[in-house]
Amino acid sequence: MGRFAPTSLDLDGKVILVTGGTGSFGRRFVETVLGGCQARKVIIYSRDELKQSEMQQDLAERFGPEKMGTLRFFLGDVRDRQRLILAMRGVDIVIHAAALKQVPAAEYNPSECIHTNVLGAENVVWACLTNRVQKVIALSTDKACNPINLYGATKLASDKTFVAANNLSGDIGTRFSVVRYGNVVGSRGSVAPLFQRLIAKGATELPITDIRMTRFWITLNEGVEFVLSSLGVMHGGEIFVPKIPSMKMTDLAAAMAPGLPIKVVGIRPGEKLHEIMISADDARGTVDLGDRYAIEPAFVEYPREPLTGGRLDEGFSYVSDTNADWLTGDALLAVLNEAVPQRRRRAVD
Q1: Which residue of 32, 126, 149, 204 is surrounded by the most CB atoms within 10 Å?
Q2: DSSP-derived 3-state class of residue 226
C-alpha cells in the first residue's frame, strides 16, 4: 500500500477524461489507469498534437493494442467551451490537470494565465454540467493558499470556481472537488531536473535562492494515487490536502551533488520562502482524515453529508517549515531514485 488509502471507487467500465493529459501528471495518471483497471474509455484532452503523438507511440509500445483501443486523443484547449462540451459527451469522470504553471511566465503574461487557469476552469465546469459528468477532480497547488503571485491567485480562483460549482448542479448531480499538493519531484519545471542538468554540464556550484527555503514534496506516483483515492472519498466541495513531507532546498542540493558548493542567488519575484497548504483561517473548516486533510465548503446549497474526521486545533496551519514530516538522508535519496532514477548524483572530491 502506498502513502494514501486506495480508492473505493470502481473505475471499471467508466469513461474518464483528463485535461492537460499529455503533461507529467496526465501521462502518469493515464498509465496508472491503463495498468490498474478496465476503464471503458480514457480520453486525453490537450492542445499539443506532437505531445499527443509521442504519448500515443509510447503507450502503444508499453500496453499493446488491446489497451490502446480504450484510448482517445482529443485535440482542444480548455479555453474553448464548445470543444470541451463535445469532448465530454458520455464521460463519467473528469480530471482537470490543464494549467499554465510557470510563475515568472504568469507574471509577465497575466492575461494568458487568467484565460487558461480561471476562464478555462469555468469552461470545464459548464462542460461537465452540460454532459452530466458524475465526478470531477481539479488539480490545484500549494501556491493557491495565501497567494503572492498571479499563478497562485488564478489557481485560488479556479479552486473557488470548482467548489462553488456544486451549488449549480441541481438535479444534474455532478460533484466537484479539488486536490491541493506541493512540488512534484522530477516533474517538468521542478528544481530536481534543473540541478541534474547543471550537474551533467559540470557545474561547479548549484544555485539556491535562500538557504532557509523549504517546500512540500510529493512524487508523481503519489500525486496520482492521491487523486484516485480522493475520487473515492469525495462528497463534493472539498479541497483535499495530502499529508506529505517537507524538504530543505539545501538538503536536496547536497543529496544530488554531495560536496558541491551552493550559491545563494536570492528569492525570485513571486516566490515564497516557505509554502503553505492550509492557512489558520482555512483550518477552522478543515477535517483530519488520517492520511489527508479536507477543507470543507463554506457554502453548501446541495445535498451533502459532512466528512467524518477530527477537527483541527485553533490556530493550526500547514506550512512547509513547521511540518512534522521531513525528507532527509536515506529517505530523500529513496524519493529521488524513485522519481528521477536516471538522474544520478555526482560525488565531488
Answers
A1: 149
A2: helix
For residue 46 the three cell numbers come to 490537450
- The one-letter code for the residue type at 54 is E
Judge contact between 279 and 326, C-beta under 8 A: no
* Every domain of the chain and the residues it spans: 15-182+219-244+277-317
Q: Helix (H, G, I), strand (E, B), or coil: what is residue 47?
A: coil
Question: 260-284: per-residue pLDDT in tens?
Answer: 999 999 988 888 999 999 999 999 9
C-alpha distances (whole Å) from 277 to each of 96, 189, 333 are: 19, 20, 24
Residue that wins the pLDDT comparison between 342 and 273: 273
The dihedral region occupied by 237, where left means phi > 0, alpha psi between -120 and 50, and beta the remainder, is left
Q: Could you say which of 14, 143, 155, 272 is catalytic? A: 143
Nearest Cα to Cα of residue 263 among 347, 198, 200, 339:
198
Confidence of residue 344 (pLDDT cuts 50, 70, 90): very low
SS3 55: helix
CA 27 to chain centre: 12
HEC string for 283-341: HCCEEECCCEEEECCCCCCCCCCCCCCEECCCCCCEECCCCCCECCHHHHHHHHHHHCC
Nearest Cα residue to 93 out of 21, 30, 17, 36 = 17
| pLDDT of the residue at 189 | 64
Is pLDDT at 145 greater than 90 in this prediction? Answer: yes
Q: Per CATH, the architecture of 15-182+219-244+277-317 is what? A: 3-Layer(aba) Sandwich (3.40)
Whether 143 is catalytic: yes
Residue 132 CA, chain-centre distance (Å), reads: 24
Nearest CA-CA partner of 195 in 38, 33, 346 = 346
Give the DSSP H or E segment for 36: helix 24-36
